[in-house]
Amino acid sequence: MTRLASEALKGSSIFIVGTGLDWVPGDRIALATASQYHLGADDCVIKAYDSTTGEVELVDPLNFYHWG
């Protein structure tokens, strides 16, 4: 588990999280809702993760805005 280190904008497929995680392409992650809309979570597949910078690239863009 980690926190977002930057906003994750709706329609974006790149955002920043904590560094040093053991995430690899193909891993699935979930981003919890950032609003009162209970269906505002995203279920994502990682395309790439840089453990030095914390940059995550997703296979598909996000459907909702997230902050963390």
Write a structural description.
The chain is mostly beta strands. The protein has one domain. Helices cover 0% and strands 28% of the residues. The chain contains no helices and 4 strands. It has strands at residues 14-16, 28-31, 42-49, 55-58. It has a 4-stranded antiparallel β-sheet, with no helix packed on it. A hairpin with a 5-residue loop joins strand 3 (42-49) and strand 4 (55-58). It is globular and about 30 Å long. The mean pLDDT is 94.
Brief rundown of the structure:
This protein is 0% helix and 28% strand. A hairpin with a 5-residue loop joins strand 3 (42-49) and strand 4 (55-58). It is built from no helices and 4 strands.
